[in-house]
Amino acid sequence: MPVAARTRYDTVALSLHWLIATLLIFMLFFGDELMEAEDGGSTFGPSLHVSVGSAILLLSVFRLIWRLNNPPPVCPASMAPWERTASSVTHLLFYVLLISIPLTGWFATPKFLSEEGVMAGLTVFGVFPLPGAPSLSLPMKGLHEIGSNLGIVLLALHVLAVLKHPFVNRDDVLRRMLPIGRSG
Question: Which residue has the higher pLDDT, 155 or 116?
Fold first, then answer.
């Protein structure tokens, strides 16, 4: 007897999606403010920025490995070919950004620390100091900011596409990633 095709993401993929999405939205909208030097040289904000960025990187790598070993449900036949292509490209771009934004941020730290000496006490999760990044002769801060801005645009497009399904297409594509109604 053939096994029915899954129509929803599994619990691990779903949990990682929403956790990473929450952290990403937080960083895209508050990340700059966290990096501002505070009076008294406190490194709490920048350390929080580094910690959340590290979490996004680690969770995204884990999610990518999970996805490669646990393929997502196939797109419904009701989706147009261009929608399937757009979905695939969007997912690929999210993985690229979710990995490259934290890495470019880390590679930007040597220059940042040379300009903001009071920030030398950056920690990851308050447990250990931020490992030193190699100093590359590239505009890492600029690349980090470009990636963040692209992340905002990609997030907006993703949300619009997600909302298109229940309100325009009137299909169940959105339900594939909702934590409620976990049958199928």
Answer: 155
